[in-house]
Model the fold of this input.
Amino acid sequence: MKNAVWFSLLICLLSAPAWAGFSLLGDGSTLNFVSIKKGSVAEVHRFERLRGRVGDDGAIEIVIDLASVATNIPIRDERMRTLLFETGKFANATLRGRIDTAGLKRLTAGDRLDRTLKLTLDLHGRQAGIEARISIIALKCGLLVTSRAPVIVNAADFGLVEGIEKLREVAKLPSIATAVPVSFELLFSRDPAARAPALPGWRWSPRR
Done:
């Protein structure tokens, strides 16, 4: 997988900078979330498998493999997969939205663009709107997108409160917070007029 990522970057560096959107480099990206238990004990977790794209029309789609949740405790990972996310029925979470491409096209390497995006998160069979404050930093061959502030995801919006209660019971905890801060750092490679190879497992089918 890493070889494919670096090969894509090499192709991009050698190609003309034609505008054709951007593909997410999962190995160079991070998506973290914080759980709070017992009222004040905070722990940072992550998802290890991401894919996505920003299309040439500005359409955004980020897909999170929920089974890739990583908390550094294997039994907790398994409980999150089965009791919370129910990955047998809901394998992925998907984030969709749109960004004005005019601003992106004007960026040169080193430029920074701050935006607030209205996005839709599809998680656990439900959809809800979220707002993300992001910074976009132009690279020679792509974009680095980071969160300027945590995105707060409310479990109740996605029918996850019951799953959190199951986690609380099995772990014998007095409480687990149902509002979850999420932060991210996403690395995108420019799609040079379809000359870069597709990354393994990538399928792009934007909804219009």
